[in-house]
Q: What sequence folds into this?
């Protein structure tokens, strides 16, 4: 385990192993996120993780941002077959045709929400009534892989045409975006959900 100081020694066990993982845990994971584009990026990356580890995706995140035009939905929604072919030939991302196609489809669905007059952030945060759910887990064995709110989000997103948004993916997304505070109570970041907005 990496140690920064006496008050930051205790962390969630899943984030140990390499510096980038620990940095992500300490600076991003569980911090309430309300920016539309950033939420879209996170949802796409959580979908890309399906069947893989988050550490794999995290290591590729900067390259994803580069080749997916900063995760700007208005650009991604216009990707053609030539762009798809280029993406599938790029070893810097997860070269899965279904996941690349889902990214394009999800960009179109994102834009449809925006065109309806609602922000993507407001749409997603409604599933937790606009405020983070505060959990108080003592160990990783207690942390669930889904919740009723994630199931509801999954069904709603799928109805709008989103892909790779099953309940487990949605719950991981909710954890990462701070809609659910699943830092262990022994983790120095547990208080983040109580203090951040």
A:
């Amino acid at each position: 385990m990496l140690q920064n100081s006496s008050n930051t020694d205790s962390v969630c066990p899943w984030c140990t192993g390499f510096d980038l993982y620990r940095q992500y845990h300490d600076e991003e994971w569980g911090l309430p996120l309300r920016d539309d584009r950033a939420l879209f990026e996170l949802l796409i990356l959580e979908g890309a993780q399906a069947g893989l580890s988050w550490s794999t995706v995290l290591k590729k995140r900067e390259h994803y941002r580069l080749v997916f035009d900063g995760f700007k939905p208005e650009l991604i929604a216009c990707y053609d077959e030539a762009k798809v072919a280029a993406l599938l030939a790029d070893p810097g991302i997860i070269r899965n045709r279904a996941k690349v196609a889902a990214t394009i489809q999800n960009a179109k669905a994102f834009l449809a929400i925006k065109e309806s007059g609602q922000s993507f952030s407001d749409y997603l945060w409604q599933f937790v009534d606009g405020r983070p759910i505060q959990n108080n887990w003592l160990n990783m064995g207690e942390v669930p892989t889904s919740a009723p709110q994630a199931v509801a989000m999954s069904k709603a997103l799928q109805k709008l045409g989103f892909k790779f948004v099953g309940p487990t993916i949605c719950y991981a997304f909710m954890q990462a975006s701070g809609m659910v505070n699943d830092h262990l109570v022994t983790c120095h970041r547990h208080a983040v959900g109580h203090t951040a907005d």
